[in-house]
Amino acid sequence: YNIFLVLSSCVLVERRRKSSSGDRDKDFRTRFGFRSPDGHEQLRTLRAMGFLDVNANFEALKTAEGNFELAVNKLVSDRRREDAMLHMSNLEIEGMRYKPEREKQMKKQLAIRRERERERFKRQEAREARLKRGREEVRRNMTNLISQLEE
Description:
The protein has 151 residues and is mostly helical.
């Protein structure tokens, strides 16, 4: 969802720049970590990474009129949208710089999650095996009782 955030911020920054005083605009940009005044830098980065159509430009964003999903659909080609989303999760919005430590952290979290899943699966298997043994034991006892009663 970071790509939506980047593109939507570009639109907001451009709008805000036209309609507000310089100070408030500067505040807004620094809060989002943008160094460029209007988001062109972010669009250039996205285009360079191959996530935007060749003919995508800043005007397409501005004409989206606040519908950021529409903006993304206009700008990001269909077949690469998912790649863009996946890749953007490894990019920080601030300056669009690649953060390897973030990727490491995400991989670590994923490994922990997988390990927990494995443990949960093992516990589930053990529980089912215990239940099965219990049922078989009850069945054996019942057949023994029945055979004793018949004698």
